[in-house]
Specification:
Elements lengths: L6 E8 L2 H14 L5 E7 L5 H7 L3 E5 L4 H10 L6 E4 L4 E3 L3 H10 L6 E9 L7 E3 L11 H7 L8 E2 L6 E4 H7 L12 H11 L4 E12 L13 H9 L3 H9 L18 H18 L13
Parallel strand pairs: 1-2, 1-4, 2-3, 6-7, 6-10
Antiparallel strand pairs: 4-9, 5-10, 6-9, 8-10
Length: 298
């Protein structure tokens, strides 16, 4: 490879320095290729801003916590590579992660794809994760044991890429306008981005079993004032996220390439009617007072 980075890795971070250090170090030592690391520092009152400067890491910065969506879009302005890889600051990439992505990308006929890696974490989330426990914090992280054992877990490729870690081509990112800042601070921004890709014609949505990251699940969302992302998604797309996930992307189902472009229409009409009824009920329950917060600070 030449000196250009293969992926630009976007990492939004909000006063989470111990985890961010582990995340960046894992990229540096467990990657097969050269990548550009870009961090958005939200507030950085814990020393994050000083650390990224000392590490000579490309970064953007806001004095307030602007959430995930605006952070992602600000980092896009610094992207050098053709491919944008979104990684949470509480994730540890495991050896082979970038080889798995690059091997898949090279086999595809065009850039109309959306790929996710597979999270390894102690809590179970649908069928897209590998349940395991190698520590919940930097202090009890069992890194050496994880590196010895992470390949022993059986997992097949799955359908419906959504959550980070994920990757798209920069042209596709720009085509859909990045992340939707009306969802600030970011609840439901991941399925919303997936829906935008679907509308733009992206049908190859795949989770790669061999691209693995360990996820600490620091739950930064418990510290922030949340937007009503479920209602916003419902009003924007005319269906609930669960309907979109169940009938269109079929998130977590075994990946079968010949079926990637065909949404499941059986039962979808009933779910769409339920979605409309739910939208009316939620609006009435809120007294028609849908809130789109201008600040993500708690």
């Amino acid at each position: 490879m030449n000196s250009s980075p293969l992926f630009s890795i976007l990492i939004p971070s909000w006063n989470n320095l111990p985890y961010l250090k582990i995340c960046v170090e894992s990229i540096r030592k467990n990657s097969a290729f050269k990548h550009q690391i870009i961090v958005h520092v939200n507030e950085g009152t814990d020393g994050t801003l000083q650390w990224v400067k000392e590490q000579n890491i490309c970064h953007t910065y806001t004095q307030e916590n602007v959430g995930v969506c605006l952070a992602m879009n600000k980092m896009r302005t610094l992207v050098e590579a053709d491919y944008i890889f979104y990684l949470n600051d509480d994730m540890y990439v495991l050896p082979g992660w970038d080889n798995a992505l690059w091997n898949e990308i090279q086999c595809l006929p065009d850039n109309l794809f959306f790929l996710s890696g597979t999270m390894m974490q102690h809590s179970w989330k649908l069928d897209v994760c590998i349940p395991c426990d190698y520590g919940h914090t930097p202090d009890d992280f069992q890194e050496e044991r994880l590196l010895r054992e992470f390949q022993k877990y059986d997992k097949a490729d799955w359908r419906g890429a959504t959550w980070p870690p994920n990757i798209v081509h920069r042209d596709v990112w720009d085509m859909v306008g990045g992340y939707s800042i009306e969802l600030t601070p970011g609840m439901y921004s991941d399925p919303d981005f997936t829906a935008k890709l679907w509308v733009a014609g992206v049908r190859y949505m795949k989770g790669l079993a061999n691209c693995r990251v360990y996820h600490f699940e620091t739950k930064s969302t418990t510290r922030v004032r949340k937007n009503n992302g479920s209602l916003q998604f419902l009003l924007k797309w005319g269906m609930t996220n669960s309907t979109f996930r169940r009938h269109i992307t079929r998130l977590g189902k075994p990946f079968e390439q010949e079926q990637t472009m065909v949404p499941n229409m059986i039962g979808m009409k009933k779910d769409l009617w339920r979605s409309r009824i739910k939208a009316v009920w939620m609006l009435i329950a809120k007294g028609f007072g849908l809130a789109f917060p201008l600040s993500s600070q708690s």
